[in-house]
Design a protein that fits this description.
- The structure is a single chain.
- By secondary structure, the chain is mainly alpha-helical.
- About 75% of the residues lie in helices and about 0% in strands.
- Keywords: Membrane, Transmembrane, Transmembrane helix.
- This is EamA domain-containing protein.
Length: about 375
């Protein structure tokens, strides 16, 4: 359990990195980079990007190794070393799958809509809390989730309307990406069940590092070789890693963007797990504000990088997207009891259970230290 100052720093880093990494990732996946012989090529390598996510997470193995050297001076974790590395494979595999699916969706979805769809995690987190954790959700919770889904639907329909009006060739892929985003957050909900157990018995740094190690191993030796031998028409499954190497050789800008992406996603994943270990309730509340910051950063990115004949960032569909964002935030605030509707009765027990989750985590941590 970290100090209040540590938690504030983690929240700030979560907002900064969580706002930057999807915009940078979207730019990498959709922008044309110098290839060879004067040609340009889009960097459409979702599995390689997932590899870079895991690569960034492995840097947290450095403090883990230092901590292992000083184990005589610290309280040992309940699960550590090879035992933790062995049991963490399941959430690591799920993490690889949902990150790859989300990265694929980012090739076709506007980044601001993609971020709004991330609120689906609230729905699956609530569902799995009832199903597997035995927690009880009240009518007010389901009401908030209802508004979240309605808001996401508003934003998704607005994005489809824009794509149809522009007669985009990727309208079908856009709709398919909506479905994959929902599937990705279902997998993310399952992964959080395993991570919840790991974080109760080990520290965040070690869990992050081990997840990254498993990710590098599985992607490098299983997923990437498979993607390189599939047929070219299988978009999202077929990749040519050699093309990515050529792009890196001919584009310094791509290398810089990848470094920024790796740093941002690594610190975002760490802070996300750290805040989740303290309070999953508050962590999801913090992330509810990310669509606003992502929208702002994507707008400024559009201003600085827009080219001739590029579409306008704001049009009449933007009003529907903004309405979807507002409705989603409204639903999240109801779910997190920031907004209390006068038509509902809120028991003191229900409010205390949700408002004091950090204090409960602190007490559990202190008890573990005493043991």
């Amino acid at each position: 359990m970290g100090s209040l100052f540590t938690q504030i720093i983690a929240v700030i880093i979560l907002f900064i990195t969580g706002s930057i990494y999807p915009v940078v990732n979207n730019y990498i996946l959709t922008h044309q980079f110098p290839y060879k012989n004067g040609l340009t090529l889009q960097f459409r390598q979702p599995w390689l990007q997932t590899f870079f996510v895991c690569f960034g997470m492995t840097f947290f193995m450095i403090p883990t190794l230092i901590r292992a050297k000083c184990k005589a001076n610290i309280k040992a974790d309940k699960i550590s070393g090879f035992n933790l590395f062995r049991v963490i494979i399941a959430p690591s595999l799920l993490t690889i799958l949902y990150v790859a699916l989300q990265t694929y969706c980012l090739m076709f979805m506007p980044v601001n809509i993609w971020q709004i769809f991330n609120e689906f995690y609230l729905l699956f987190n609530a569902f799995f809390s009832v199903t597997f954790r035995g927690q009880k959700l009240h009518f007010t919770d389901w009401t908030g989730l209802f508004f979240v889904v309605i808001g996401i639907a508003f934003a998704g329909v607005a994005s489809l309307m824009r794509s149809i009006s522009e007669r985009s060739a990727t309208t079908t892929e856009l709709f398919f990406s909506f479905i994959l985003q929902i599937l990705a957050h279902c997998l993310k909900g399952f992964a959080s069940l395993g991570e919840d157990y790991m974080l109760q018995n080990s520290n965040t740094v070690t869990v992050t590092g081990f997840e990254g190690l498993w990710g590098i191993y599985l992607i490098a030796f299983i997923f990437l070789p498979f993607c390189n031998i599939t047929k070219s028409q299988y978009v999202g499954i077929h990749e040519i890693t050699a093309d990515a190497v050529t792009l890196f050789q001919n584009s310094t800008a791509l290398i810089i963007l990848e470094i920024v992406f790796i740093c941002c996603i690594a610190f975002y994943r760490f802070c996300s797990l750290y805040l989740y270990s303290l309070s999953s309730f508050r962590k999801t509340l913090y992330e509810s504000f990310l669509p606003i910051t992502v929208w702002l950063i994507s707008y400024f990115t559009h201003l600085f990088t827009k080219q001739e004949n590029s579409r306008k960032f704001f049009d009449y569909n933007s009003y529907f997207e903004a309405s979807g964002l507002i409705i989603t935030l409204f639903g999240s605030f109801i779910y997190h009891r920031i907004i209390r509707l006068p038509c509902f009765a809120y028991s003191k027990e229900t409010i205390d259970n949700n408002s004091s989750e950090v204090q409960i985590a602190a007490k559990n941590y202190l008890l573990q230290q005493e043991i």
